[in-house]
Give the backbone structure.
Amino acid sequence: MRARAHIVAGPAAEGGTRLSTLRSEAPLVLRRTGHGVTMVAGAGGPLGGDELHLDIDVAAGAQLRIGSAAAMVVQPGQPGAGDPADVARFTVRAELGAGASLYWEPEPTVVTAGAALESSAHIRCAGDVNLVWREILVRGRLDQLGGTISSALICDVDERPVLRQTTRVGPGSAPGWDGPAGLAGQRVLGTVLLLGAAAGGIDPIAADGAAPYAVMRLEGGGVLVTALGATTLDVRRALGTALVMQCG
C-alpha cells in the first residue's frame, strides 16, 4: 500500500491558524480537532511493504499542533520478514516559514516481532521558528521481542544543516545496538527536538527518574533530548525531567 497525505497551515485573517489543505489518503487519515490536527488510522498496520508519506507546510506566522488518536502499530507484511520488500516506510517532510510554530507529538510507534520500519523526518525551517518534534519508538508489544527500527531525523535551519541523526536497532543492525551505546537492554526510545522559543514553552511531565536520558545542545540554540526506558510512561517521564532541567 502507498499513501500520501498533506497539511498546509497558514495564519487566518481573523487570527489563529487556517488549514488551507488537509488531504488524507488511507491509512493516513487527518482530522481537524480543537488543538490542531489528529492522525487517525484508516486501516490496520502499516504492514511490511507499505510506504506512507506525510507533507507538512506551516506558513510564516502560523501555529500547528499534530497528534494522533492511537499508537501506530507496524506489523510484518509477509511471513519470514527480512526481505527489503517487507520493510514498512514512513516519511515525514516538514517546512516552516518565519515565525511559524509546529508541535509534532504523535502517540508511540510500536514495531512488532518480525516487522521492520524505516522512518525518516526531514525538517526545513527559518531561524526564528518554534519547534517541538517528539517521537517515541517501541520494540514490540509488552513481553514480546520487537522488530527492526531504522529512524532518521534531519533538520536544516536557514538552509544550514543542524542535525543529521540515524538510529538503527533490532535484528540485522550493527553489533552493539542493544548494548550500553545503544538501547542498553531497554525496549522504548524517545527523542524530542526543540528549536527556538518552544524550548521554554513545554508543559513538562512530572518525573521520578525511572529512565535515563541524554541532552545534546545543537548549534543555533536547539536541543535534542534522548531517553530510554522499559515502558512508554518511563520515557515520557524521563523526557519531562530533561525538559524541566533544560528549559525550566
